[in-house]
Design a protein that fits this description.
heterodimer; A: mainly alpha; MetI-like fold; B: about 300 residues; 2 domains; two-stranded antiparallel sheet; 2 strands; globular; cell membrane (chain A)
Chain lengths: ~260, ~300
């Protein structure tokens, strides 16, 4: 019984992680196409990324949009989260579920709906439309992080600040913000990754001259057999691993997906 | 949560003046809260709620080809879907592929969750990290690894031919098995985390009691642990099923034109053929079918195991 359980657990973990190992392995190949196990060892497919402007542009596009999406999500999410946590707003549960409702609609349907909606508004295929779509998918996470961060917040601290004569802005800046900073930071990083990794919503929002890195990989995987897909994918894995390590230190990766999803 | 927000005029208030002032304060706090909530509420309304309603409205407009002039209100789009064998086959394939993905995720996921529940806190932490981390890596990248493994004459084919199970390359890529493997791989973490959460909540003394009165570990598992973990199992199944139903990227990469699941059809109708009203109708059919099947499934389970689902 125990033996079977441990065996299946190991098989399951291999099943889960093997695509990442294979991708990184294949990126070191010397052959002109990605293979696993790799033929020989070289870093040529990493060096050659620099000669491929489409990957470089896509990378900078991804970082730019993910940064902006994370910034606006956290800004909007923190303001709303503070209001929800601090005041007894009537219908609070309803408001929270309304604000996090984009999580319940599949990205495919959301992307399609926004494309149809944005076209008459002349936002389709525009950077603004792209950014708005990404904020829609990121902002529910930002609210959740802020609400979680504020759930144990001691409001007597704010009152103490006020009694001592600080105005509301000073109270926020010196007391509230430092306490919820880890939650905001985790929310921002999570929003960044959600936007950075997104393919489905982006597919409906891009024009040919504005692609993000996962999209570039998606199209190259479909079109051709390009060894660069392995090395670029590996770089995406390395970047994600850095985020995972930071998350694990400040928040706990398991908690990100635990609870009500 | 108690209202302890800062308000300058409350500081000086004396006992008998408190009552009328308080009323004003409540109103002002409410206004302040609404003012803070307004930007995000408006944003979500304008760019999520309204688009979703607009698309629902569009789904009831029938357009001949791309000519908008002879558009009319009808349920024609829905009728077209449910009378055309191509779309019905696509719906059936979507359900089939999702059910297979759920089964694989359940078979692999339950033992992992059980191992997590039975491990020390430290090991549990490492396992959680290993299981949850892939969720933070783009699905394109995760699918690419499977793509390399499943490619004709790739590692899996060579391994299976090497040990003599098959004598010609299996067509794993661009077929249903490829899509199922890709989906199960993508959503396995959700299954594991859902089941693990409900396993953590089981009172360990129940399992101890079962073994004290002489039940074998296997019997204890089937009469105590498994029934008590059912809420997590149902939650995991619901999550993996609904995510598989609406997954576009994995079927596109691993199945291509050979596995035309509904998300592929929706993408094609909207982004390639520009049949927006019909695409909108299929989107809502996908949402509806997913919601109905998930509801029926969890109702049946909840009714059958009333004691476990509170």
């Amino acid at each position: 019984m125990k033996g079977v359980r441990i065996t299946v657990t190991i098989i399951g973990l291999i099943f889960l992680l093997i695509p990442l190992i294979v991708t990184i392995g294949a990126s070191f190949t010397t052959a002109g196409y990605p293979t696993f196990p790799p033929k020989g060892f070289s870093l040529q497919w990493y060096e050659k990324i620099l000669d491929r402007p489409e990957y470089m542009d896509a990378f900078f596009n991804s970082v730019k949009f993910a940064f902006l999406a994370a910034f606006f999500s956290v800004l909007l999410g923190t303001i709303a989260g503070l209001a929800l946590a601090k005041y007894d707003v009537p219908g609070k549960t309803f408001i929270v579920s309304l604000l996090t409702s984009p999580l319940t609609i599949p990205h495919l349907v959301l992307g399609a709906a926004l494309l149809i909606y944005f076209t008459p508004m002349l936002l389709a295929g525009k950077p603004t439309g792209f950014l708005i779509a990404h904020i829609v998918i990121c902002v529910p996470y930002a609210i959740r992080f802020v609400l979680t961060g504020l759930s144990g917040f001691d409001y007597t601290l704010e009152r103490a600040g006020a009694v001592l004569g600080a105005n509301p802005f000073v109270v926020f800046w010196k007391i509230t913000l430092p306490i919820i900073r880890p939650a905001i930071l985790s929310g921002a990083m999570f929003a960044f990754l959600i936007s950075f990794d997104n393919v489905t919503v982006s597919l409906f929002m891009v024009s040919t001259d504005m692609r993000t890195l996962p999209l570039e990989l998606f199209f190259h995987m479909q079109d051709s057999y390009d060894p660069m897909v392995a090395s670029v994918s590996s770089i995406v894995i390395f970047i994600s691993v850095i985020f995972i390590v930071i998350f694990e230190k400040i928040y706990g990766v398991g908690k990100l997906f635990g609870g009500s999803h | 949560m108690e209202n302890l927000g800062y308000s300058p005029d409350q500081k000086m208030s004396t006992g008998f003046k408190l009552a009328p002032k308080r009323k004003v304060n409540v109103f002002r706090k409410y206004m302040a809260a609404m003012l803070l909530l307004a930007p995000l509420l408006l944003f979500i309304l304008a760019f999520f709620v309204v688009p979703m309603i607009y698309v629902f409205y569009l789904s009831f407009i029938e357009v001949e080809g791309l000519d908008v002039s002879n558009a009319s209100y009808s349920i024609g789009n829905y009728l077209t879907f449910f009378t055309d064998p191509y779309f019905l086959r696509s719906l059936w394939m979507t359900i089939k592929v999702s059910v297979y993905a759920v089964i694989i995720a359940l078979i692999l996921g339950y033992p992992i969750a059980l191992t997590m529940a039975k491990s020390s806190a430290r090991v549990r932490g490492y396992l959680t990290l290993l299981v949850a981390s892939p969720l933070l890596i783009s699905v394109v990248v995760r699918n690419f690894g499977w793509y390399l493994l499943l490619v004709p004459n790739g590692v899996i084919d060579q391994f299976l031919m090497g040990i003599g199970i098959t004598d010609s390359p299996l067509k794993l890529l661009f077929s249903v098995p490829g899509v199922v493997i890709g989906l199960a791989n993508s959503f396995l973490p959700f299954m594991v985390l859902s089941i693990a959460t409900s396993l953590y909540n089981i009172d360990p003394s129940l399992e101890k009691a079962s073994s004290i009165i002489g039940a074998s570990p296997l019997r204890t598992f089937f009469t105590v642990t498994l029934p008590l973990s059912l809420p997590g199992v149902v939650a995991g199944i619901v999550l993996v099923f609904s995510m598989s139903m609406s997954s576009y990227v994995t079927p596109a990469l691993m199945g291509g034109a050979n596995v035309p699941v509904l998300p592929i059809v929706i993408y094609e109708q909207i982004n390639t053929l520009f049949r927006w009203t019909f695409g909108s109708a299929i989107s809502y059919i996908l949402l509806g079918v997913t919601l109905i099947s998930v509801t029926i499934f969890s109702r049946i389970f909840e009714r059958k195991f009333k004691e476990v689902f509170r």
